[in-house]
Amino acid sequence: ATFFTAAAILVLGVIVLVRARATLVTYLFFAITVGASGWLGFFALMYGAASAGQAAAFARGASAFASIMPAATFHFAAAYVNRRRALRNAILFCWVFCGAIALLELATPYIIIGVRQFDWGYYPIGWRYNFSWVMVFVGMFAAAVSMLWQAAKTSEGVARKRARALVVSFAVSLLAGFE
Questions:
Q1: What is d(CA 168, CA 162) in angstroms, rounded to the nearest whole number?
Q2: Can you say whether residue 121 is alpha, beta or left, with left for phi > 0 and alpha for psi between -120 and 50 degrees?
Q3: Which of 52, 59, 103, 136 is deepest in the core (most CB within 10 A)?
Q4: CA distance 124 to 115
Q5: Is 167 exposed, middle or buried (0-12, 13-18, 19+ CB in 10 A)?
Q6: With the C-alpha atoms ordered 161, 37, 106, 133, is the resulting torsion angle positive or negative?
Q7: How far apart are CA 103 and CA 61, in angstroms?
């Protein structure tokens, strides 16, 4: 089911990329779907891994893909509400911070320190201080949702409906991160 969900998310991203106009918002939405799809796809592989070492490698890959999503979501929201120039320093911080965390996840054993085996498969064990950078990720998502909520309040018609739908979808995806 997890792998099927990953594939469905990626297909959704490709459909939007192909059918929509080529804009920064479209590419950022695709980046969000790639992050979510990679995260879930690697988790599916981790669940069925043949060994703890293989499962840990898949867990690191999953975490690296998940680390793309906060920066892409913040950048998407800033572009969607036409505040990209005003928030360029915050956008740069988001990408650098998330990229650094992704690299640490891939290259070191300090964020994903191992895996635990259950009857249904492996699950990652995180470092006890992960909470600190996860809160920065939550802040990025919350800021994105806030920007979209403000856009929904000041828009009318279809633009209001779209902004509200984005608020709901990003708020739900934030909850999904607390697996």
A1: 10
A2: left
A3: 59
A4: 4
A5: buried
A6: positive
A7: 10
Task: Using a pLDDT cut of 70, give the percent of the chain over it.
Answer: 98
pLDDT tens digits, 60-69: 999 999 999 9
**Residue with structure tokens 């969900």?**
5
Half-sphere exposure in the Cβ direction for 149 (13 Å, CA): 9
Q: pLDDT per residue over 75-117, tens digit each?
A: 999 999 999 999 999 999 999 999 999 999 999 998 999 999 9
- Distance from C-alpha of 48 to C-alpha of 120, rounded to nearest angstrom: 8
Amino acid at position 133, single letter = W
